[in-house]
Amino acid sequence: LINGDKEDETCLRKYRKRCMQDMHQRLSFGPKYGYLSELQSGEQFLETIEKERKTTTIIVHIYEDGVKGCDLLNSSLTCLAAEYCMVRFCKIKASNTGAEDRFSSDVLPTLLVYRGGELVGNFISVTEQFN
C-alpha cells in the first residue's frame, strides 16, 4: 500500500504538470515579440497601431536623444519587452513622428498605451512622475 500511494502521487504530479502546460499553451496564443522595436516614421507608427491584433497591447515610447531619462527608459523597456513577450514594445523619436512640435523636450519621455487601435493610457514626462 505504501508503494501504491507513492505511485499515485507521482502520477498525480505528472497529470498536474501536463494540465498546467496545456493551459499555458492555450492562454499564450497570438504573436510573441520580446524586443523593443524602433519605428521610423509617423506613418509606420499609425500603421503599427491600426494593423495590430485587437487583443495586443502596444506600448510606445516617444523619446529624443539627449533628453533626460529617455535612454534609461529605453533600457527599462528593453528588459520589460523580454519578460512580457505578448506585449508589443516600440519606440519612436519625437522628431520622426511628424508632430515634433507636440513633443517638446519638456514632455519627454512620453509613453502611450494602445489596445484595439485605441489609446488607453498616456504618461507624459515619465521621469517626473517615476523619478
From TrEMBL:
GO terms for cellular component: photoreceptor outer segment. Gene3D superfamilies: Glutaredoxin (3.40.30.10). It comes from the Eukaryota. It holds the Pfam family Phosducin. One of its GO terms (biological process) is regulation of G protein-coupled receptor signaling pathway. InterPro entries: Phosducin, Phosducin-like_reg, Phosducin_thioredoxin-like_dom, Thioredoxin-like_sf. Residues 1-130 form the Phosducin domain. Belongs to the phosducin family. This is Phosducin.
